[in-house]
Specification:
homodimer, 212 residues, mainly alpha, elongated
């Protein structure tokens, strides 16, 4: 019997929450068959909800990343000036991850490992974050910041400089070394120092002169 | 029979190289017992060279990281001005990792995984890099850069901003997105923008004002 669309959606959500609970309880990624066994559904029903592991993982990631998505959209809709807006764009997601890590380091670490192992399946989230960041960069450039840089160039540079605050894995390694105060300084540094019109001091260095 | 010190040092080096060859050939970390079996030594001899896995790993890491160490020391001894010197300090090690990754991505990735799994055993290398970076920061401050920051504070901020170029794992994930030209811009951005005396624009933001 085919599931109707509403039941399918409800089951998708219920089982994705169940998988997250199982990850927390067992401390390891939950396979397709384990999720099937725990779901209480017959295999034919389960397969209608999740044709493969990709579909299951996507449903789980959707729930896990929902607060990040909401935070990004809240910041985008705000009327903060460019510097504060970019700071909040990174900070709000960092705060979510930091609080989750503090609440249950082991669970958080397992989820990070799952994300790393299934990176292609969370790419759409990364792409969306990049898309929003490009909007913030364009706004900043309209205000005279990040002068002379292509948007893609600025995006890549900024992403690299704030990577410790957007890569959840970094929390596992660095923990307390990551703070909102430091992130604020990094964002300030970017807005003051990053432009194509100054600061060529380090560029074009091919060889190293040694002291005699 | 006890090995004399010179033989012990030669065997240590020979076996560490052998382990790196085995990692390359097999694509996986080599256990203490596998290294023992391949070494051709009797267990009692092997144990004199490597009392435990820690000792074995340290010998392997020493060989793998020798070019990084030499590069750091070469830059430290150079008479480059502060911006270029810090750029070279990061760039030279990045170039070694990038070339190794390009030459054999699988081997490089396995070594990264070994490093991550045995992070405490490479901590002395990380500590040394931090120590050298502190020297560069002090020199830069003597020239008026990075004004008003404690050295430890500057160290942490700079380490975070250049982390993608000093963490070998980042190459595995980002590959071609990491370039020397971008690193140069990041170093320039740090020298222009990072100071405690300006740029408080993003600081002290506790709440988010939303557009009506």
């Amino acid at each position: 019997m085919a599931l109707n669309e509403q039941t399918r959606r409800e089951e998708r959500r219920r089982i994705a929450h169940l998988v997250l609970d199982l990850v927390k309880a067992r401390g390891t990624e939950i396979s397709y068959n384990a999720a099937l066994a725990e779901s209480g559904l017959a295999r034919s029903r389960f397969e209608q909800v999740f044709p493969d592991y990709d579909a299951l993982f996507e449903a789980v990631a959707e729930i896990w990343l929902a607060p990040h998505l909401a935070a990004m959209e809240e910041v985008l809709a705000s009327d903060l000036p460019p510097v504060r807006k970019m700071y909040e764009f990174v900070r709000s997601r960092f705060a979510i991850s930091r609080d989750r890590f503090a609440a249950d380091p082991e669970y958080f670490t397992t989820i990070c490992e799952m994300g790393a192992a299934n990176f292609e399946r969370v790419r759409s989230y990364v792409d969306l974050a990049d898309h929003y960041m490009c909007e913030l960069i364009a706004d900043a450039q309209a205000d005279g910041y990040l002068a002379g840089l292509e948007i893609d160039e600025a995006l890549s540079l900024i992403n690299q400089m704030v990577a410790m605050y957007t890569t959840p894995d970094a929390l596992v390694q660095l923990g307390d070394k990551l703070t909102e105060a430091k992130l604020a300084r990094i964002i300030d540094t970017i807005f003051i120092g990053l432009s194509a019109e100054s600061g060529e001091g380090a560029r074009g260095v091919g060889t190293l002169r040694l002291a005699q």
